[in-house]
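pasting for the record
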Amino acid sequence: MKIKLLNSFAVIATAFSTISVVHALDQENVANSVIAAQREALAAATETEGFGPQSPRDLSTLTGENKRIFQRAPRYTQMNLCNVHFHEGAEHKGGEFTVYAGNGDGKGYGSGYLYSAELTKAELMPVEGEIDEGNLVPGDTIELHYVYTTAKITPGPTLGACLSDSVANPQLRVEARVFVLVNDHYALDFGELTRVNKVNGYHQAINIPQDMGVPIEYAGSTTGPTYNEKGSPLQVSWSVRPNVAKVNIRTVGKWLESNIFDEKHAHGVRNLIVNPELLSSIDK
């Protein structure tokens, strides 16, 4: 069972019109020593193996000591969208998502980074029914990954859709956007955010927001808690926008019920990479 972070607005006097999105940690949170042990295992597993720079990272940290260099992938408009998925809690730290959710269950859930600004009581009101089997509620932060490849593919489930028999080593790019879920019919529609069509011969997510701040671009890897104790071998050009937009939580639930990527639930987060030997330098 996933850890569910508790919304603190339930204990705030109703006289307030806006509420900080701060979450109380569940009693099942693992100790700091568990996360420290995972980081030690990751360092040991990658120390002499030649892994390239890893993700996610603190976007305000511009330095890194990883020596593996690979060519930056083309702009996403010159690549094929291959997969779309999202993580519960932002995997990256930076911009408007800097509040640490806590260690979670040690397996990627109940952790990550949260939207640091305020929402109204109306935006935080519970919705009828369950979203992602009750694991998502208004006020939760998600990081959406639009994954692109230079391979000739058809968009589909898992990162396997980014590879092909004819191109085993395509260049990969992830356009990352962070959203906060709200109870608001006028907020962004997740189905529209993930709408796919062909543009100039390339599969594209045609409604990727472009107004969420100047992107931070860096060389990294694939993410997810599978790689908490081992290196990811896939090289990825990342573009992460620093601002957070609001999305209607009901539209997220509708998308999870049916989408071409066979996504049924939010993914867990990988521990933030803090080892300098596993980070690339960011050029400003």
